[in-house]
Amino acid sequence: MRRLLDFLYDGAAWLAALSMIGVLVMVLLSITSRQFGFHVPGTDAYAGYSMAAAGFLALAHTLKRNEHIRVTLLLGRLAPRGRHALEMWALSAAIGLSGLFAYYSVRLAWVSRAINDMSTSSDATPLWIPQMAMAVGTVILFIAFVDDWVLELMGRRGNTGPEEALHNE
After folding, report:
1. Cα separation of 33 and 113, whole Å?
2. N or C: which end of the chain has fewer CB within 10 A?
3. Model's pTM, two decimal places?
């Protein structure tokens, strides 16, 4: 199961990286088209879609690498038992919030598909297509929080101490 979850997080990170390349391609295409006097419609919209996809698809991978911003001032001062309780509370809240976020992201894409919602920009893209990246990213983030919750419950979650957090700066 661990391999499958790590593959899921890494796969989403690779898709995020490809989305960043998509942003680069769209920006370069927009610049090049202006320089050579032709117009490619939708480059701004597609750059935006790619940027959003990169952000959402990278959330779980970032969480699993302990790269999300955390306030460790209180955690560092707690005894191990208190730290565990606070971590469980925080992860439980994160599961609830990310679950809601995932549910409504999936619902948004589903409704956009059902009503055939289209982008108002010149590209006229069906909005469910770029919204799928948000939905997939939030579902994977929800899975990552549940994964961390289970690991913390079993005492196998690698926590970052406040001294280690300072090394990232």
Report:
1. 32
2. C
3. 0.86
pLDDT, tens only, 78-127: 888 988 999 999 999 999 999 999 999 999 999 999 998 998 877 888 99
Rounded CA-CA distance 72/70 in Å is 6
Structure tokens at 102: 């995932």
Q: At what angle do helices 2-35 and 43-57 cross, to 10 degrees?
A: 160
Q: 48, exposed or middle or buried, with CB in 10 Å at 0-12, 13-18, 19+?
A: middle
Question: Domain limits of the chain?
Answer: 2-166
> Contacts from 34-41 at CB under 8 Å and sequence distance 24+?
41/122, 41/123
d(CA 99, CA 145): 9
